[in-house]
Amino acid sequence: MVSQDFNELQKRILELKHEKKVLILAHNYQTIDIQEIADFVGDSLQLARKSAESNGYNSILFAGVRFMAEMAAVLSPKLPVYIPDPRALCPLAACLDAERIREKKKEYPGVPVVVYVNTTAEAKSEADMICTSGSAVEVVESLGVDTVLFGPDANLADYVRKHTSVKVIDLNEEGHCYVHNKFDREMFLDMKAKYPDSVAIAHPECPIEVQDVADMVGSTGMMAKTVAESDAKVFLIATEMGMVQQLQKQNPDKTIIPIYDAAVCRQMKKHTLEKILNVLENFPEENRVTVPDIYIPHIREILEKMNKVRGQGPPVPVEAHS
Ligand code: SF4
After folding, report:
1. What's the pLDDT tens digit per position in 238-260?
2. Which end of the chain, N or C, is surrounded by fewer C-beta atoms within 10 Å?
3. DSSP assignment of 96-132
4. Would you say the pTM of this structure is higher than 0.85?
């Protein structure tokens, strides 16, 4: 039943998604109005898992950037996957192509390649392992090697360097998320001085100088868990604003303060309720996200390897294996 709290556009979207059996997945960085009409809201890996549990649906609508929708297409190959705005591309993912990885492999023969989940399907097809921000350290350590090639996020690479003894070679030294790279140590320390009883949490895509002065460094999933479970009342958050708004909504008895309120991902914000409605009404072919069949088995394999490292079951339904 549709809640009276929804606006007319949201009500129409909810009616259509039920009628047409569309699973709507929204990333943490989406605006709250989009999060409200989604079946699930989460980080890229949580949403990838949800896309693998899509029995009973006719299609998936993924409100996130393209590489995330590609993951849904990999894990749920029987369902068409749509994105509200096909121009929603992550610049971090775009800065590491398969050719650059092949060149690095030639330069460092035998060194395993670990790619961040924020990569294109083509880049993932060249990797030995995949990781999320929350699993990067465990994944690198699991390889039992002295050296890894890692990318594309150079700040996340610094985080791995700090927490392991493995030599980490950047696949792209210039690879940064422009949103998280905006945070700096001074703004962080200023906010800490202003709110001395707060817990300050930074995403590992922030520069290492910021990570060094944070009380905790973690993925958006870890932020949500920490804020929900902590006895603290005030939290300073260094990540994208959509996550800050979500944390406040989910924890109304706590005060969630952004370290920098201009940290907004323009690519994530390309999606709107109007564009979601357009997909639900028309299912335009240009909004469909596909991954070449040739890449799918390898990407599923490295995803399963990552989940084994984390002690979690494979995100892929058994019957979907071919
Ligand atoms: S917040 Fe950064 S990493 Fe995430 S989609 Fe936007 S640009 Fe890419």
Report:
1. 999 999 999 999 999 999 999 99
2. N
3. --HHHHHHHHHHSTT--EEEESSS-HHHHTT-SEEE-
4. yes
